[in-house]
Amino acid sequence: MSRRDLVAGATAAAALTTLPAGVRAGTAATDKPVMATVNLTVNGQRRELELDTRTSLLDAAREHLHLTGSKKGCDHGQCGACTMIVDGRRINACLTLAVMHQGAEITTIEGLGQPENLHPMQAAFIKHDGYQCGYCTPGQICSGVAVLAEIKAGIPSHVTADLNAAVTASEAEIRERMSGNICRCGAYSNIVEAMTEVAGRQS
Amino acid sequence: MRSFTYERPSTPAEAAASVARNPEAKFIAGGTNLLDLMKLQIETPSHLVDVNGLSLDRIEPTPEGGLRIGALVRNTDLAADPRVRTDYGVLSRALLAGASGQLRNKATTAGNLLQRTRCPYFYDTAQPCNKRQPGSGCSALDGVSRQLAVIGASEACIATHPGDMAVAMRVLDATVETVDAKGTERKIPVAEFHRLPGDRPEVDTHLKPGELITAVTLPAPKAGTHIYRKVRDRASYAYALVSVAAILAKDGTGHVAFGGVAPRPWRVEAAEADLRKGAKAVTDRVFAGAKPTEHNAYKLKLAERTLTAALNQARA
Ligand SMILES: Cc1cc2nc3c(=O)[nH]c(=O)nc-3n(C[C@H](O)[C@H](O)[C@H](O)COP(=O)(O)OP(=O)(O)OC[C@H]3O[C@@H](n4cnc5c(N)ncnc54)[C@H](O)[C@@H]3O)c2cc1C
Ligand code: SF4
Ligand code: FES
Ligand code: FES
C-alpha cells in the first residue's frame, strides 16, 4: 500500500465513520426498533416492561421505571456509578441488556434502604462523609454492600496474600475490591472508613 | 446502537446454527465487551444470540486429572473455585488482576478469550484502523503506541490481545473446545487460538463463523509456584502494560508466558530451558526479532524486570 493509498483510505474512513451508523451500515431502511416484553423483579416488585432490545438494564431502571438513583457516569463499564445488585451479585447495569435479565431479582439503591429506613451502609456513608457531590454514591453503596458479602463468601481478590486462607475486610482488601467505583470528588478514604465500620459490625 | 433482534436458545447446536446462518449475528455472553463496542458502532450485529441459557456454566474434573471449565463460567467463579485456587493459582491470580469486581461477575471464560484489543485508535471511530475498517490504515504506527505490541505484529496492525486470563491459560497449556452448526466438535490449543494479524488484522482468532466455544480444558496441574505479575499504570482496574504468568520450581526451572506484548499471549517454550540462567537469558530469546516502536520499546526491559521479580518471588 502506497502512502497516498493510505491517506486516501484514511480520509475515506474518517468520512465514513462520521456518518450516522445506520447510513454507514446501509441499514437505514431496516434499522427499526425491535421491541420485547421484559419481566423483572425490581426492589421486590414485579415489573413488566415493553422495551427496545437495545435498552440497558440501567436505562430500563432510570428511564422506564423512573428509579433514578442508579447513575450513568460513563455508560461503558469504566466508573461503577450504575452498579446494581442482580441475583445477589453487583454488576455494571450500563453494560448489560434488560432483555437478558428475564425474571431477575434486581436491587437498586432505592431498594437497599429509604430515608426513613436506611441500610446500615447508607447510614455509615452519611456518618463518615463518604461522598461530596453524591453522584457516584448509589453505585459506591451498592458495590460496598456486595463487597462485604463477597468477603464473607470467601471470594479472593488481587491483594489476598494466600489464595487458600480466609479473607478479611482489611483496608487493602476494601480498596482493591472497590476499584471499579470511581469518585471524582475523591471521597475514597471516608468510603473505606464507612465500609470498615459496617464490616466490623457484621463480624 | 444499531437495532437488533434477540434470541436465547437452549442448546449449543441451536446457538451455533443461528449464528452460522446469519453473517450479521453474534453470540452474547456477559456482554461487557460486545455491548461496549456496539454502543460505539464498532460492532453492529443485527441479531444477538444469548448463550446464557446453554448450561455451560460448570467446572468439572476431567478423566486426565485436569479441569473442564464451561464457556459460561463467570470470571469471579473461576477465580474463586477451590480447585483453581489450589492447583491453578496462576489462573486465579490472572483473573483477579483483571477488570473490576462488577465486570468479573458478568465476564465469562469464552468472552474473556474473545475480548477485542484496547488499541485507542480501534476505539476512536474518527481514526483509520485496519482492524475496525479493513484497508483504512493503521493510526498506531505513527501514533501513540505505548500500550501496543512489540512482537508478533505486522505492518497492518500492532494491537495486543489485552487480556490477562489467556496469558495464564497459555502457560497452563489449556485447550479451547468448540462446536459448530453441524454439531462437529473441535479442540484448539490456546497457543493456536488467537491469530497473528498479518494482512488480515480484522480477524482475531481461528474460530469459524458460528463456531461456539463450549469449554476450556486444563491438563493436570503443573507443580511449582504459580505467579501472575501485572505491571500497569495504576494499582487496580487497568490493563497490563506487561504481564508475566509463570509456574516456577524452587530449582529455578519452569514455564513462562508474557501478556501485553503481542497479539496473543506470548510464550517461547524453548527459551524456558534458560530460566536458571536468569531473566535476561530468557527474555533475549522470547523477544528475539521484536520490533518495538519508539513509544513501547520500554516493554522489553519491563518484561525482563517483571520476570526477574517473578523469579525472586518463586525463590522466596
Ligand atoms: C472498564 C473495563 C476494564 C477491563 N479491564 C480488563 C483487564 O484489566 N484485564 C482483562 O483481561 N480484561 C479486562 N476487561 C475486559 C473483560 O475481561 C471482558 O470484557 C470480558 O472478559 C468479556 O467477557 P463477556 O462474557 O462479557 O464477553 P461478551 O462481551 O459477551 O463477548 C465478547 C465476544 O465473545 C463472543 N462470545 C461470547 N461467548 C462466546 C462463546 N461461547 N462462543 C463464541 N463466541 C463467544 C461474543 O460474540 C463477542 O464477540 C475490562 C473491561 C472493561 C469494560
Ligand atoms: S494497531 Fe491495529 S487496532 Fe490499532 S489502529 Fe492499528 S490496525 Fe487498528
Ligand atoms: S455508567 Fe456503568 S460503569 Fe460507568
Ligand atoms: S462524591 Fe462526587 S463523584 Fe464521588
UniProtKB/TrEMBL annotation, chain B:
PANTHER family per the UniProt record, alphabetical: ALDEHYDE OXIDOREDUCTASE FAD-BINDING SUBUNIT PAOB, XANTHINE DEHYDROGENASE SUBUNIT C-RELATED
Lineage: Bacteria, Pseudomonadati, Pseudomonadota, Alphaproteobacteria, Hyphomicrobiales
Domain FAD-binding PCMH-type: 1-223
PROSITE patterns, A to Z: FAD_PCMH (PS51387)
TM helices/strands, residue ranges: none
Name of the protein in its database record: Xanthine dehydrogenase family protein subunit M
UniProt cross-references to InterPro entries, sorted A to Z: CO_DH_flav_C (IPR005107), CO_DH_flav_C_dom_sf (IPR036683), Diverse_Substr_Oxidored (IPR051312), FAD-bd_PCMH (IPR016166), FAD-bd_PCMH-like_sf (IPR036318), FAD-bd_PCMH_sub1 (IPR016167), FAD-bd_PCMH_sub2 (IPR016169), Mopterin_DH_FAD-bd (IPR002346)
Superkingdom as given in the UniProt entry: Bacteria
Keyword annotations from UniProtKB, A to Z: FAD, Flavoprotein
Entries under Pfam families matching the protein: FAD_binding_5
UniProt keyword annotation of Flavoprotein present: yes
Keyword Flavoprotein: yes
Molecular functions (GO terms): FAD binding; oxidoreductase activity
